[in-house]
Design goal:
single chain; mainly beta; seven-stranded mixed β-sheet; four-stranded antiparallel β-sheet; globular
């Protein structure tokens, strides 16, 4: 059974940083693409970043501020978020194949 569990969300001031984790069981993160998505209140869920092998890709809104990476030994994918803005406030989800995590709340506010 495949499970993805996000953690690391919280409240941070504008300009601050957070690192989200996506702990995966039931599939090997080094073999499959893992994506991060987010959903702000009243908005549709949107794609944020993809990591697959040595390839990464980012939405324009986060390019240069967010970095996706993975630790194969821990079978975990990370999303390092720097220079956070209020518009980054959302529930963040990780996904691989058709499996989604439960999400972690990120709130950027002074």
């Amino acid at each position: 059974q495949v499970q993805l569990v996000e953690s690391g969300g919280g409240l941070v001031q504008p300009g601050g940083s957070l690192r989200l984790s996506c702990a995966v069981s039931g599939l090997t993160v080094s073999s499959y693409a893992v994506t991060w998505h987010r959903q702000a209140p009243g908005k549709e869920r949107e794609w944020v970043a993809t990591g697959y092998g040595s390839t990464t890709d980012y939405a324009d809104s986060v390019k240069g501020r967010f970095t996706i990476s993975r630790d194969n030994a821990k079978n975990t994918v990370y999303l390092q978020m720097n220079n956070l803005k209020p518009e980054d406030t959302a529930v963040y989800y990780c996904r691989s194949l058709m499996y989604w995590g439960q999400g972690t709340q990120v709130t950027v506010s002074s």
